[in-house]
Each structure stands twice: as structure tokens, then as C-alpha cells.
Amino acid sequence: MNQSDFLKVVLPFKDKVFRLAKRLLVSTEEAEDATQELFFKLWRSKEKIADYKNVEAFAMTMTKNYCYDRLKSKQASNLTLVHSNYKEKETSLDKKVEHRDSVNQVHQLIENLPENQKIIIQLRDVEQYDFDEICKMVDMKPTAVRVALSRARKTIREELIKKHNYGVS
Amino acid sequence: MELANIEKLVEKYENAETSLQEETTLRNYFTGGNVAPHLQEYEYMFNYFATTKDETYTKTIQLEPKKSKKRNLKWLSVAASVVLLFSVFIGRDQYQRYQAEKKFAQVTKALGMLSSNLKKGEQAVATLYTYENTVNKILK
After folding, report:
1. What is the CATH architecture assignment of A97-169?
2. Domain-by-domain residue ranges, chain B?
């Protein structure tokens, strides 16, 4: 497998990898570094990739594991510092959107979810993978995935309602 | 899409029982702008999902990025250790010379003191000799 073949396989899901990394690592810079690092890793194990049927799912699993490691590692302990920078970028992105504040709230709410719910909602509601793929990526049983997803969706909605009513009254 | 149908789908959606197709229907409805007031939260959610999906990785992916970095670091550490070794040697040399000079000064001082004290004794002995000589002269 040469470089252009590799890129042909890999490039279609680079944004998905990036978005998942960003979901977990919060800061854009961290996510960019993680994406770069992951594709470098993939490139190094390119011999194995040829055997995989679903490279994308494999890459997503790798992303998940890598981000977990990053979060656990010492280096990531200054993530909280970066946390403050990210908001500006986010708002510039959402400027075009109506109901900007409420849409931003969704971002915050997802951030507060437990890690596995975060991943699952990212994979399902943003990236629109089907359940089989998600199960493979997160290495969970279908029922567990459904429960987590349902819980995540309900939590977000309830929190939104709470905030909404709070603002009104 | 009529509202009753959407409401049914929403309920399924909350229980994570919707298929991807049904979710697409929901997405189209909620991002379309014409949303019933009591379902407004979903509008925020789906709009958020849609905007998030627009975000892309803009940097180019480099496939051989770390190697050069690592090699630089390796050579840097080699250079640093060489410098350290070198400075330790030179430092030790200097220190030894300094110690030797100190010892030499101490020994010189001690020898000087010894010789001056010996001279004192010699003088005393010389006085004794003169005394003895005079005594002998007188007694003879």
C-alpha cells in the first residue's frame, strides 16, 4: 500500500476522527494533534490495514482509545487551561445559526455527559453511524449502546427544558 | 410531515429506537425551521448536530512528522551529554589543580614555621655555647 492508496482510504473519514477527538478532548488544538497522531499511527500500521474490512470503524475505535489515553495521561492535565480558549472559535462557527445560545447550550450539555454517552451521541447523532458499527467502535453490546444513547438524548432534552423554563420565569 | 407522526418518531428517538432513516426525517423536520413550539428543544439539538458536522479538519495530514522531531531530540541529548561529560572532566581537572595548590601553600607555610622555630632553638643553643666557653676560660 503506497501513500496515495493510503490517503484514498483514510481521507474520507478524517473529519469524523477530528470531530470525535474534539468531542472528547474539547480543545481544537488538542483534537488536531490527536488527529495527526492517529493518522500517523495508521500509516505505520498500513500493512495491517489492508486486512481490515472496515478501516473506518477501526480508526474510530483507535481515536476513542487514543483520546481516553490522552485524557488519562499527565500531559492532558493542562486541558482545563485550554478549555477557555475554545469558546471563541465555537461562537464564530455558530454565528450563522439562529438560536445561537440555545444551540451552544447543547454543546455544553453534551460536554457534561459521561464519556461513553458523549461518544455514542457523537457517533450516532452527528456522524450517523448505524448501531452495528457503533457497537464495534465502542466495543459494547447493542442494548447497552441503546440505553446509553437514550439516556444521553433524554438528559439533553430535560436539561434544555430546565434551562428554557428557568429563563422564562 | 404531519405533527402526530413527528411526535411518534420523537418518542422513539428518545428511547433510541429510531432507524437512521427515521432520524433523517426528524433532522429534516427540525432543521427546516417550521417547528412546533413544544418540540423546540429538538430544534436546538438537531441544529447543533448539523452545525457540528460542518466542522472539518483543515490541516494537511503529514505521514512522517515525528521522525525528524525525535531524531533532533536524540541528537540534542547526545550533544548535551557530551558537553556534560566534557565539563565534568574539565571541572575535575580544575578542582584537582586548586586542591594541589592549596596543599602546596599549606606545606610551604608549615615548613616555613618549622624552619623559623628551629632557628630560634639554634640561637638558644648558640648562647649556651658562648656561656660554656666563657665559663671554661675563667675556670682554666
Report:
1. Orthogonal Bundle (1.10)
2. 3-54, 62-140
User: Closest by alpha carbon to A163, among A118, A119, A107, A123?
Assistant: A107
Residue A135 to residue A120: CA distance in whole angstroms: 9
Whole-angstrom distance, CA of residue B35 vs CA of residue A123: 25
Q: Does A118 touch chain B (CB under 8 A)?
A: no
Instruction: Give the global pTM.
Output: 0.64
pLDDT tens track for A120-143: 999 998 888 888 888 988 888 989
ipTM value for the complex: 0.76
CATH 2.60.40 given to domain A1-84:
no
Tally A–B CB contacts below 8 A: 96
- Amino acid in the structure at residue A159: E
The answer to whether B16 contacts A157, with C-beta atoms less than 8 Å apart, is: no
The alpha carbon of residue A157 is apart from the nearest alpha carbon of chain B, in Å, by 6
**Joined grid coordinates for residue A145:** 449502546
State chain B's mean pLDDT as an integer: 87
Domain ranges of chain A: 1-84, 97-169
Q: The C-alpha cell of B41 is what?
A: 428543544
